[in-house]
Automatic annotation (TrEMBL):
Gene Ontology BP, a term: glutamyl-tRNA aminoacylation
Alphabetically ordered keywords of this record: Aminoacyl-tRNA synthetase, ATP-binding, Cytoplasm, Ligase, Nucleotide-binding, Protein biosynthesis
Protein name: Glutamate--tRNA ligase
Organism: Bizionia argentinensis JUB59
Residues the record lists as binding ATP: K263
EC number: 6.1.1.17
UniProt GO cellular component terms: cytosol
Lineage of the organism: Bacteria, Pseudomonadati, Bacteroidota, Flavobacteriia, Flavobacteriales
Length: 504
């Protein structure tokens, strides 16, 4: 590429960062690193009405957790700072007024009441009100007023916005790396507001100015910004600036494949749509986060990479370094990517098996209050036995609680299947066998008990099913002998005796 690659991720601090936002950040990051470029974080906080305290810190923490390192941004290599748009408003005013001076934009003094009147009037006639070439000369703006009238309004301090003057009867030729070439007629476009009455720019002006001043070479963003591409092309032309290349990523769809994935889908189906848990300061509601639900950042990055991109091979497990090497925008799909909660767990299961058991044990202790006083070394032994059946660290308790507490509830179906008339007598004999085992180890337990079963010609199921029921409370769990060893001889005997007492 002729210029050093510079890309930006520019979220708004209006709440938690959706995984769609993280995916956008990831694709920008992968593209930058693939081409030895720069990944920039810019905070687009011009909409002060929607600003949420703490959201910027949330964004930074989420990126850090995912392993997406910022090369340039707030408090990081501020080569083109400041990187918060709220701190750049004087810059935007200058460029907005430049567009007015060049005839590409104009002052509009229309009140919200007047605009509302026109909208309702058009609706009553079965039409849609669009502020553009068709009617702008009849509205209250610097195109319909005399220069003296405009100056009088400005001197009087009347509220105004600056609108872009979209040209008439032109055809725009647009190019998108992912979607190819597109054409659009300017007559159907409205004159977008570029500068608001509160002295701040809209997204359209701010991001164009910032991208130019920060020397952005590629704009990689969500599909929802595709309708704005025509305006952004026109703004670059109006300023006489070289355009960056654009790539609009496909939507992340609901698990059904219909409609954009939302927080409501996650709440309804019980999976996170945010990288980190988030507490709404107004309502107190807490939204699920992948980190807090026991997912590993490597798994989150891996499954997000496959939402709209494929490597062209059968490989599914990628490290960040492998993703950087394989990533290519030409392999990003146009069609929306269906979100599959089960597939995310599949990725996490893989990465869980690669974790050290002592790390998993510490994570398990942190999230499970019942383990506060349990030795982490014991927890580590338990984790080693159950992690193969787990997708998440949060699965561990259901898979292993019987290692830490005596089961109090018995599964009814298991009781019917395992407990027969001769079960009490058989279980009492099992206790006697255990008493005879001097060196209480897994291998010795297995040898003695299986030898006794064979010698007495007892059905294996008649012994092992009620024994498992006594230890676990159900017919599930790791190897019976592993459970017996970890909980110890006395606890094993106590549980068998409790079962006999309960069911006899």
């Amino acid at each position: 590429m002729s210029k050093p690659v510079r890309v930006r991720f520019a979220p708004s601090p209006t709440g938690p960062l959706h995984i769609g936002g993280i995916r956008t950040a990831l694709f920008n990051y992968l593209f930058a690193k693939k081409h030895n470029g720069t990944f920039i974080l810019r905070i687009e906080d011009t909409d002060q009405n929607r600003f949420v305290e703490g959201a910027e810190n949330y964004i930074e923490e989420a990126l850090k957790w995912c392993g997406i390192t910022v090369d340039e941004g707030v408090n990081t290599n501020e080569k083109f700072g400041p990187y918060r748009q709220s701190e750049r408003k004087d810059i935007y005013r200058q460029y907005a007024e430049q567009l007015v001076a060049s005839g590409n934009a104009y002052f509009a003094f229309d009140t919200s009441e007047n605009l509302d009147y026109y909208r309702k009037d058009h609706e009553a006639k079965g039409k849609t009100f669009i502020y553009n070439w068709h009617n702008r000369h009849f509205l209250s703006n610097s195109l319909s007023l005399t220069p003296e009238e405009v100056q009088t309004k400005l001197d009087a301090g009347e509220d105004y916005v600056i609108r872009f003057k979209s040209p008439e009867d032109e055809t725009l030729n647009l190019k998108d790396i992912i979607r190819g070439y597109m054409t659009i007629e300017t007559n159907i476009l409205d004159d977008k507001v570029l500068f608001k009455s509160d002295g701040l720019p809209t997204y359209h002006l701010a991001n164009i100015v910032d991208d130019h001043l920060m020397e952005i070479t590629h704009v990689i963003r969500g599909e929802e910004w595709l309708p704005s591409l025509a305006l952004h092309y026109q703004l670059y032309d109006a300023f006489g600036w070289e355009k960056p290349e654009f790539a609009h990523l496909p939507l992340i769809l609901k698990p059904t494949g219909k409609g954009k994935l939302s927080k409501r889908d996650g709440d309804k189906l019980g999976f996170p749509v945010f990288p980190l848990a988030y507490k709404d300061h107004k309502t107190g509601d807490v939204s699920l986060g992948y980190r807090e639900e026991g997912y590993f950042p490597e798994a989150v990055v891996n499954f997000l990479a496959f939402l709209g991109w494929n490597p062209g091979t059968e490989q599914e497990i990628f490290s960040m370094e492998e993703l950087i090497e394989a990533f290519d925008l030409s392999r990003v799909n146009k069609a929306g990517a269906r979100f599959d909660p089960d597939k995310t767990k599949w990725f996490n299961h893989h990465y869980m098996q690669e974790q050290y058991n002592d790390d998993l044990a510490r994570m398990f202790k942190e999230i499970q209050p019942e383990l506060a006083e349990i030795d982490v070394n014991y927890v580590e032994l338990v984790v080693a036995l159950v992690k193969e059946r787990a997708n998440l660290v949060t699965d561990f308790w259901d898979l292993s609680h019987f290692f830490f507490e005596t089961p109090t509830d018995l599964d009814e179906k298991a009781v019917k299947k395992a407990w027969k008339d001769d079960s009490p007598e058989i279980m009492n004999q099992v206790i006697a066998v255990l008493d005879s085992v001097e060196d209480y180890k897994v291998e010795n337990l297995q040898t003695e008990l299986k030898g006794w079963i064979t010698k007495n010609e007892i059905s294996f199921g008649k012994v092992m099913m009620p024994l498992r029921l006594a230890l676990v409370g159900a017919l599930q769990g790791p190897e019976v002998f592993d459970i017996m060893y970890l909980i110890g001889k006395e606890e094993t005997k106590r549980r068998i005796e409790n079962l006999i007492k309960t069911l006899s």
